[in-house]
Amino acid sequence: MRLLSENKEETNDLLNEIDQTNQDTDILKNGPKISDPYRRRFLILIPVLILSLTINIFTLSTIISNTRRYETPSNYANLYRTHTEPYVLLTDYSSPNTTLSHALWHSINIDSGVIALPDSFAVSHNLRTAQRFPWDIGKGIYILHGFHNLHCLKIMYIALFEFRNGQTQSRAWPHIMHCLDALRRQIICDADDTPRATERRVEVVSGVGQHRLCRDWGALETWAKAHTACYKRPENPVDEVGLKRFMHCPEGSGYVVDEGYVPEEDILVGLPEESIATGGECVEN
């Protein structure tokens, strides 16, 4: 009897272990059993957590990707200030090696700054309607202001170089004065408030080693070339006048140059002088 009882107990223990094993397996497969109220709350909480996580990820990615959110782009080519540039005493353009500096100043070319813009662009950006572009009369001819200022600097350099070397002035005095005044007005318009640190030197030195935040001139050139006016100024201005200067369309421009084209109005000759009349408010960026 005792042996039978012990066998029965062992059998019950074995059955209990099997049942416990089955319960553990069910928990692993189906998870712990959750009462209905908690189960409903849990199911409601999941989509809320997913939605919150999605919103946070979107907000974070927007902040990271929009690093320029506090900066206003330039009015027309949408340029941002992308890099810093130090103030320095000398560059190759002011080098004592006059052969080098002279070559660099003469290498300045502003042809790509003469552009053709659709009238729709002019209207949307509050630009004056300009004279017609011969190969697409729905466009007007414009000169980008930065290129115009480079042109003025080149004109002034040439005049100074000729004066220093006792050469006959090749540029008219009114043109030189126009350029000088244009740069004066641009400086006042920019009203740059950068405090340049002075140094204890005999000569006037300031700002060396400080940096300014700049736009990408290369990006402006790229934008200008995308709106080419097919313009090229010859070394000798009398070689090509009027329409001929607009016959240098790059490959792939889509413009068809017509040498027999007869414009209904005068076509730009060289770089136009700015109006002598005083303008309105400064709006350049």
What does this structure look like?
The protein is mostly helical. Helix content is 43%, strand content 9%. It is built from seven helices and five strands. The chain has helices spanning 2-30, 36-65, 98-107, 119-124, 145-164, 173-190, 217-226, and strands at residues 81-86, 114-118, 132-133, 136-143, 211-215. A three-stranded antiparallel beta sheet has the order 2-4-3. Strands 1-5 form a two-stranded antiparallel sheet. A hairpin with a 2-residue loop joins strand 3 and strand 4 (136-143). Helix 5 (145-164) packs across helix 6 (173-190). The protein starts with a helix and ends in a 59-residue tail after the last helix. The model is unreliable at 1-8, 24-29 and 273-285 (pLDDT under 50).
Which tags fit this structure?
three-stranded antiparallel beta sheet, two-stranded antiparallel ribbon, 7 helices, disordered C terminus, mainly alpha, 9% strand, disordered N terminus, 285 residues
Summarize the structure.
The protein is mainly alpha-helical and 285 residues long. Helix content is 43%, strand content 9%.
Please outline the helices and strands.
Elements: H1 2-30, H2 36-65, E1 81-86, H3 98-107, E2 114-118, H4 119-124, E3 132-133, E4 136-143, H5 145-164, H6 173-190, E5 211-215, H7 217-226
Antiparallel strand pairs: 1-5, 2-4, 3-4
Helix pairs in contact: 5-6
